[in-house]
Structures
1.
Amino acid sequence: MTKNVISGVENKDSQPRLYNHNKIWTKPFIVAIVAVAVLSIISLFTGVYDLRGQEDGIQMFFITRVPRTAALMLTGAAMSMAGLVMQLITQNRLVEPTTTGTIEWAGLGLLAVYLFFPAPTLVLRMTGAIIFSFIGTMIFFLFLRRVKLRSSLIVPIIGLMLGAVISAVSTFIGLLFQMTQNIETWFVGSFAPIQVGRYEYLWIIILITVLIFIYANRLTLAGLGEDVATSLGVNYNRIVLIGTGLISVAVGIVAAVIGNLPFLGLIVPNIVSMIRGDDLRSNLPWVCVLGMGTIMVCDIISRTIIMPFEVPVSLILGTVGAAVFIVLLLRQRKPRRLR
């Protein structure tokens, strides 16, 4: 009995059969959806404002609570997908928008928009963040092509160094032109300002999800390396460009609307890949659902840990994500010690 690892097909007596873990609609996945639905209900009714005891409680529910919960779900899916696609393209599980400098480039794009437009609209801020995210991600990939040593630790270190440089440049420009206060909310990602009229552009993420699902098989082949992808008839450079563009749009929208959300794209894709492998098409629904659940749990904690005040959700995400990042680093080093 032989197994085909890439396609997820097990051959027995010449009869192909899909692995169970490549199926999408399984009992665990349905349980995960139910859990996310429960978390969304908890999120809708979590907050300091008494919805039942106020005359405008119903209005406030639809003005603030519903948009916030929708923003949480869309943002969780976006950042998790971005991390999954980046990990496939770079063939490295420690890569995501935070560890490649992409999110820092988005912040620089926001700052550049504020320099040229004193009171930019949300569309202008999104455009600047998307363009600079794309440029920064492509620069990161160009650096990787120049680096001969491509170990699992070197790649995120390069991204972190690039991000640190861009962050320093953004801080210097902000101080020089006295514009740090304009983007200070970006450095602390929070869903507190979300309400009707300030989150609707996040619905574009649904389109990004559909496009990633359409290109899923080609992105998976690109994750096998340039030589393998080319031999299988895939234009490697084109699919990497498309993947980078989709990542940039998702990260740019989130950066402009919400702010910096560290390590979300690192935690969720790694958990899913450890359990299910690296098939993007079958993993994408799982990544979206678990991304939604993760960020909603962090947001509920941020709203209740020091009630009636609120902790930025990026603080909770950063703490959890840093711990997961350390665990992944230790897992990468363990095989070397065993040798």
2.
Amino acid sequence: MGELATDKHVRYILSVEKKKDSFESVVMEHLRMNGAYWGLTALDIMGKLDTVDVNEVVSWIMSWGFGGNVGHDPHILYTLSAVQVLALFNKLDVVDVDKVTTYIVSLQNEDGSFSGDIWGEVDTRFSYIAICCVSILHRLDRINVEKAVKYIISCKNMDGGFGCTPGGESHAGQIFCCVGALAITGSLDLVDKDLLGWWLCERQVKSGGLNGRPEKLPDVCYSWWVLSSLIMIDRVHWISKEKLIKFILDCQDTEKGGISDRPDDAVDVFHTYFGVAGLSLLEYPGLKPIDPAYALPVDVVDRIFFSK
């Protein structure tokens, strides 16, 4: 089995942010805030967050008003990424907590669901993001948790999985969002853990990788979505951890750094983060443990909730 090329991945992540006019950077322009979260969290898991200028990152985050990039409209997706990045650096004190909380509260609909922004798209991803964000800010009581949980449960399917809206197809990404939100609100007893665990462990294919739905190709990012869900419902022993570790390591570019969706594909910061985070969940040596519900290193989550 190969080894994680940590130093190469650190160099790769740091180089991505510097190449502002590269193809990858232009394509990712609307996702720059998410990209910052993926890259910085991966660095922290690898114990290399000190390679970044904290003040530069914090002032950049505070300059844009919680859109995907400077000058973009606010959206709940980027709001969570910003809060998570500030949490990594122990800089949550710079957040106008009431303002952010009021924005998130304004996006909860009558049925308990959440919209992503003022345009009203509804998706269980936004339920997770809202719940995770207000929880990190110690404002979970400001949303209607009971209604939020009820809406998430209404998206549960006969196969034990969850979709993006009621009746939507079960998908590993949505399952993570729903299970994560239920974990944060202390509602995991509402999940059929054996049925869902069975659906999730069926996502492992011959190569050891995981897919997001039946009959799809494996993809490194599901090493996070599927694995974290299995851990939260205590069914991770139903898959082969060794095969999955090998699959993730096979997706590395061992010369230039970075991790791709499948072996020999082009690397990107998204899959680099999910590969490293997946290995952390698999207790790969030398990596900091990551919290499966909050998608932040365990020491960061402990600091948020348990430090004086």
3.
Amino acid sequence: VMDHEVGLFCRELPKVELHAHLNGSVSYQTIEKLIRRKPHLNIEHSMTAIGKGQRRTLEECFQVFKVIHQLVDTEEDILMVATDVIREFAEDGVKYLELRSTPREEKNTGLTKKRYVETIIKAIQQCKNEGVDIDVRFLVAIDRRNGPEAAMETVKLAEEFLLSSDGLVVGLDLSGDPKVGHGKDLLPALQRGRNSGLKLSLHLSEVPSQLEESDLLLNLPPDRIGHGTFLHPEMGGSQSLVDKVLKNNIPLELCLTSNVKGQTVPSYSKHHFKYWYQLGHPSVICTDDKGVFCTDLSHEYQLVASTFGLSREALWNLSQQAIDCIFAPETVKQQLKWRWTDLKHHIFTVTKPEANYVSQTVV
């Protein structure tokens, strides 16, 4: 009973998603449509997702993205993928979403980086015009594998859209294979982006032994941290890294299924969510790549609840506190907080647990 109750509550819960890579969020159904469009590629489903109980190394996860990129190489593909992803998040009760993606150019289809971003903005506007109940913003991603010149080019592109996208482009993401390149080479680009008013969400300490890089990047400081798996001393990080995160009050974007399936965390109970949550530090539950890892945000909340014994009230607070971590302006935060307040009574009434079920808070 309890699991069903919590599951129902997590579905009904209004949610904020702040760490979602566009191409990694493509669902089974959308992949199906893409495969039908491109039969000549001979791509099978098993190549684009990591199913229940499966584990992959981080390297293998990046191979999956390569396959998805082959399927998504025209403006038409991007438009379909982005609108599908936005609708699916909305169906899962996500009220505010920040999508991220690296602008790509495809010589053979004539796709340019600028058109890539424009098409995602078009998808966001299209969903809005259709009345899809979700507020969507976009983070332009820097892929660290592409080096400092490409990073600077991406920042300039993001600056352009920061001014012209009517508030839809709000920041930069730094991602890509964490084992390639060094953050210090990307600092000039990130500093420039920061100075021009773009918010920064940086993948940080995603793999072990990146203390020096993490330290450098934390000095910026970023506005949010993606994963931060190996920041704290118990995971081979250091107290001084933790202190910087706490001092600047930098929220963490935490993705449980992604970390366990990608093998950077051994099990759900060992996830660093517990470490930061016990410190009372802002931690936002996210999906990372809902398509590739076969999950959704409701499921991630349910995992946190069952693994760490969080009550419905604690889950509600977790979801509501995420509003303070978004990159959209204060007016948007205020509107979202009013929405949460409006919905609260309804959700706690609709999903009343059995009278004899007393919540056990473990954390």
4.
Amino acid sequence: MSARLEAEHLYKVFGRRPDQAVERLREGADREELRADGTTAAVIDASFSIAPGQIFVVMGLSGSGKSTLLRMLNGLLEPTAGRVLFDGQDLTALGDRELREVRAHKISMVFQHFALFPHRSVRENAAYGLEVQGVPRAERLKRAGEALALCGLAGWEDSWPDELSGGMQQRVGLARALATDADLLLMDESFSALDPLIRRDMQDQLLELQQSLKKTIVFITHDLNEAMRLGDRIAVMRDGRIVQTGTAEDILVRPADDYVSSFIQDVDRSRVLTASSVMDTDLRGDEADCACETATPDTPFNELCAISARLTHAVAVLDKDHELVGVVPRQRLVAFLGDEQHEPTPCVSPREGGEKVTAHA
């Protein structure tokens, strides 16, 4: 599958002689050396690709460069070096007018602060992106109403923004982005200003919408639990660089360095890990009864614990062809729950590392 969005060796440098600064970075200079010369390297050699329909989360602490990176993806900031490709089109090569057309029709942005017009109704706020596109009034109000209904705001169309709670105002911002039917949504700390319960509700809303809309989404956050919950793939940034990219399980099970390891210490692993990341693939005879209740590689960790509690032996993990690909002894589950620093051996399918074992369901 071809990528919907690609970043190729992106750099963003603020200050004097940015092109020279990029060359120095390529030659091995670090951020602090440039800062001493009055130059700030906000993003350094960032590369990734995002498949259609994927939620790609960029996370990092304040000052890591994640918001600057996001603004280069839709041309709000021009890269000092590197390219952004959207459906194969080089956005960095477009003129201002062409770039505005792309932003108006193909890329929508949802900001941290709701940015609603106080003198416009909820429906008119949701229709604003369509107004920019030049869509006739009747059509844009109809589409805005449909987007508001998708976001759980049916019945609030004629209200004013100050009559809505913070969570509801953020839903209007999301509806405004969805109404344009853009292929790509850029979400910059979109839920960070919300209370924890409302924030989780908005995460649920986004995941529910994604099930049907299948948008390509770049989501910026400093909250690791939010990243783990939303991201199909996650990029971890530090000091302007992407230090690791992978699934939530990749990052939890195989952190790239000590920085990532320290970052994930407080994550509730039981909400992220699945059978594939904890199973033992070193199969040695009858270690599990495959005639009893079994799991699949995608079985969530919490559900795996419940299955294990009902059995007197290890849980068999079967793939879609009912072939045994691993087992999960109870003591392995206990180890994962009790030792936050436990790192399992990377999983290798028996078909890659040994004879295929077929189980009969």
